[in-house]
Amino acid sequence: MSWAAFPATPVWFVLVVALAGGAVGEVLRRRLATGGYRLDDETGPPPRVPVTVVPVVLALLWGLIAWRFGPLSEWALAPAYLGLGAVAVALTWIDADVHRLPRGLTRPAYPLLVVQLAIASAASGDWGALWRALVVGAVLWLVYALLALVAALLGSGFGLGDVTLAGLVGLSTGYLGVSATLVATYAAFLLSAAYGLSRIALRRGGRKDDIAFGPWMLLGLLLALVVAVRPLF
Questions:
Q1: What's the predicted TM-score (pTM) here?
Q2: How far apart are CA 132 and CA 232, in angstroms?
């Protein structure tokens, strides 16, 4: 697998994948619109953003992934990130709504992602990328687990759902290189901090408000996938 430059991805491929993303997003929209992911005690107001944005977001996301990864690993790498993208959109919506990352979404994503990355490695012959992904995923999971322990001692809202998601972020970015994982991690903390400060500045929240961290982790992941051209180390 060569990371020297962006490979040329046919426009038709990007368009087809984007349309498929819109179709999958419509199915996801219908599921999210029911609010079935909410627990009995999660009875707050619905999200301010209409759920109709879900198909549009997933179509754009899948198109971006198709453009970014299309021909890599004999066209076998893109499906790994397409599947993760669908899970990411669902997790972002749910965490923004109820501040929870359902294990029913995060845990099944692990074997699915590992299998798809293994297929990509088999197609490209780059097994080192897969081993790096496994190691980085485990390390990032451990780092977040330690952060969650500290947060629990301090009474913070940093939870185990973020820890589980961290492993997925480490797997998906570690396959590209450790530098991509660093970009995703730093971006998540910087973006969430900027959001929290902006809420305070606009007087829409306070310092003690709980902020859903999952969406910022996933946005950092997206940024890392887009900017990662080749592994630095």
A1: 0.90
A2: 13
